């Protein structure tokens, strides 16, 4: 394998290791699903009843929800690139070609959550709240885990 491909693969591996360490720390800091649920119930009441809600509740709910959505999307792309670099090294593939191929992949397909790109944040909140209603034991788990499970069940890819 040429030097450029080796350098590319090494950089991807370093990024994957860094992200993996960050993900472990993020899970330690991730609030329990019960905390997210409380704020997001208040958010939905405010928008469903066209009522004045607590700005902090709404901001917290939307901030965590949008952060989780972006984290899932970016994490799936980094994971796929990491896997692609491993394949390129193992099978001596052209790393540039592997990188180009992964850039053409839809992040939602990599993740396995295929909602419409126009899905509003409130629909994601409703979906995960419904998942928590069906699975009350999940209330003490980190919201990131529960969020992924709820969305992957509600929006599976074909």
Report on the architecture of this protein.
With 158 residues, this protein is mainly alpha-helical. The chain has one domain. It has helices at residues 3-29, 33-48, 55-90, 95-103, 107-111, 121-134, 143-154. The protein is elongated, with a radius of gyration of 19 Å. The chain starts with a helix and ends with a helix.
Précis, in short:
The protein is an all-alpha fold and 158 residues long.
* Oligomerization state: single chain
Largest pleated sheet: none
SSE pattern, N- to C-terminal: HHHHHHH
Query: How many domain modules?
Result: 1
Tell me the β content.
under 5%
Radius of gyration: 19 Å
The helix tally amounts to 7
Gap from first CA to last CA = 36 Å
Strand runs, count: 0
- The helix/strand class is mainly alpha
In helices, the fraction of residues equals: over 70%
Shape: elongated
Average pLDDT figure: 83
Q: Which key terms come to mind for this protein?
A:
158 residues; mainly alpha
List the helices and strands and how they pair.
Blueprint: H1 3-29, H2 33-48, H3 55-90, H4 95-103, H5 107-111, H6 121-134, H7 143-154
Helix pairs in contact: 1-3, 2-3, 2-6, 2-7, 3-4, 6-7
């Amino acid at each position: 394998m040429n030097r450029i491909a080796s350098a590319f693969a090494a950089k991807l591996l370093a990024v994957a290791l860094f992200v993996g360490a960050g993900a472990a720390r993020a899970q330690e800091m991730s609030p329990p699903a019960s905390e997210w649920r409380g704020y997001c119930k208040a958010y939905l009441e405010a928008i469903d009843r066209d009522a004045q809600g607590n700005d902090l509740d709404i901001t917290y709910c939307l901030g965590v929800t949008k952060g989780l959505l972006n984290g899932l999307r970016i994490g799936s792309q980094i994971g796929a690139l990491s896997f692609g670099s491993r394949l390129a090294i193992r099978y001596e593939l052209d790393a540039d070609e592997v990188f180009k191929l992964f850039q053409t992949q839809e992040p939602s397909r990599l993740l396995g959550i295929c909602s419409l790109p126009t899905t509003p944040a409130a629909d994601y909140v409703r979906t995960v709240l419904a998942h928590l209603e069906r699975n009350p034991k999940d209330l003490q788990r980190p919201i990131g885990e529960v969020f992924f499970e709820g969305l992957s069940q509600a929006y599976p890819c074909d």
